[in-house]
Amino acid sequence: MGLLSGRAEADGGDRWRDRLWWMFALVGVVATGLYVVGVAQLLDFALIGAGAVAACFASPSMNDFSPARAWHTLGAAGAFMLTGAILRPIVVPYGSALPAEAFTVPGYVLMIAALADFAYGRRAIDRHSVIDGLIVCVGASTVFTLLFAIPAMSLPDRPLIFSVLAALYPTFDAILVLLVVMLAFSTVAGRPAFRLLLGMMVLIFIGDLAYAVIGNQGEFYKSPVLDVPFLLAYTLGGASALHPTARELVRAMPLPVQPWSLARLAVIIPAVAAPFVLTVAGAPRTGVERWIVGLGGAVIVLLLILRAISAVQANAVAQARFEYQATHDELTGLPNRRRLTQILEELLAEPAGRGAVWVFFFDLDGFKFVNDSWGHPAGDRLIRRIGQRLRDTLPPEATVARIGGDEFVVVRRGTEAEALEQAQQIVDCVEPPTRVGPAEVVITASMGIVAATRADAELPTSSADSLMRDADTAMYRTKAAGRGKWTVFDASMRRAVQERLEIEGALRSALARDELRVFYQPIVDLESGRPRGAEALVRWEHPEKGAIGPNVFIPIAEESRLITGVGAFVLRDAVRQLAVWRAEGVVGDEFWMSINVSPRQLTEPGFTGMVAEALRTHGVPARCVALEITESVMVEGGEISEGALRDLRALGVSISVDDFGTGFSSLGYLRRHPVTSVKIDRSFVSGLGASSSDEEIVRAVVAMSAALGLTVVAEGVESTAQRDVLGRLGVRLCQGWLWGKAVDPSSFAERWSADHTVKAL
Hints:
Number of domains: 4
Number of helices: 27
Keywords: Membrane, Transmembrane, Transmembrane helix
CATH superfamily of the largest domain: EAL domain
Shape: elongated
CATH architecture of the largest domain: Alpha-Beta Barrel
Number of strands: 16
Transmembrane segments: 20-39, 45-63, 70-91, 103-121, 133-154, 160-184, 196-214, 262-284, 291-309
Domain EAL: 500-756
Radius of gyration: 43 Å
Structural class: alpha/beta
């Protein structure tokens, strides 16, 4: 309750602060109205002015931002100018405005400093903004000087100090114009705090213009009405300081504006036209005035030329930066795939010269482990360091590129001996320990190499894209054979890739054309000689190629994500077949169906629901289905896979670990996952009777499984000698060619019907 109450109080405080700016603005408008009708004028001015000063000093802490210097300086400027405005009507009747000017002039200086601080904080002091501001400043200065400063200084019988002051304020206004323009070109104009601050500056200019007019008449104060713009300026300035977006005026967030955008032209064009309009209107009457107008126009023309040169230079720099970013990797600064393709095409187009064009394509073995263990920032540091090592180690004629993720490509021209030497350099360059996160890691590079001669370059298979594709193919051949090495591409690999693509396309059609079949191999009880279960195994009879073995198409299905469709088909068909056998009396009530499940299937959101639906549709008890997983699911599977296994066990199906002992066998993994049985891999069974080490491994698996209450199945049993050893070691369930290969449902029913006597083949 206390937490909710505290949160409500905090929300209430935020809402109060968000409303404060318009409450201040409302009070300021009311006070200005009272000032105009003559009600407590001095109090009205002091109240709003002091409130605006206080708002400027309080804004940083209220809105929780820093640095606070610019707002504090603006508050100090407001305090000095307020003092001068209050003193002016008091001291002018006594014949001197100097006491008021002693505060007003420092106020303008502080205001200039505050706006300069805003511009610096927002990085508004860039070349374009300064030139644009100077153009407007020169135009405004020319107008102010001609129309106000010179007439005020030309008044007869006037002390020099007052003439200087009369000329000083137009100068202040010109500088303020410069800073406001620079700030406007670097600020999101739609932000309320900036619009309020801009309104404040416009009102100050209007007020100064009014005082400049009476200054030409030799007066320093004429009526309280002249102070109305300043009173409204204080109102808007205080509201700007109190607005929540005030923090954005001190942030380094330059606004990306086009060099000659309409917004800039709308401000610049009047300033550019000012000297010429004055000339046409006949304002310059004396030689000095004509010199001022001519000088102002010349300076503006010069600034316009500088502005055009600056825009061209900026465009060239931006174009160069864009081209660099488009052709180089952001993380390492190395050429990216696009630039690498250009370099390869240039090399292939050159005369033969010295040797062939060699492409070395490699990625970092173990990079995923670094990302998963210490996060992507650690992976980025590793990539940068490997890129730097390659750049420092390889010869200048070799191009090093990063084409994505942890994939690098090196390209060079040379002889075969030089290429093989460089391949070893790359491997040696990657292998030294690299510190990432809290530890040092040792990674390796698996690499594929391909070469193209000048004669090959005329062939379509030797384009830049095809060379990188071939090198990529060779790299994956390296990974299959053993990491940390390299493989040189040959044409047979391309044919293998083409065959793989053909099989993938045919497999997609096979699912649609119902070409897949499910065969069954018995899991036999050694004591009774009768099957206790069967493993469902998918087979594919291609209409043209004939039988395609699962060892060929299952890996392709895994890589192409077709395994989910294949697995769903096998699961549904196997459960359906089990229901048919149960109904026909081919198998007993305790007979189970073992079905392989790929790691990818376990990550499918609806997999558990699909299993439950199949059981419900065909009326098969969940205890009569065992799902076989690989050891990699226990080791590499994430929370989704683990959650799916728990849900499946809760459903009632059994979970079996297939090919146990070939991967990362661990008692801890078996204890952590809801496993009910293990299948000893055929590689251990094949050595029984001849290898004592295989026998000890099987004995250890049986002992461990007994301790955990797991059922043990031995697969790949092909001889009676293997069967006898397994029986002696305590294994009761076996499958293998000793009892026959996997067969179609009718053949299985004929051989293993419940009323038939079973004998080993």
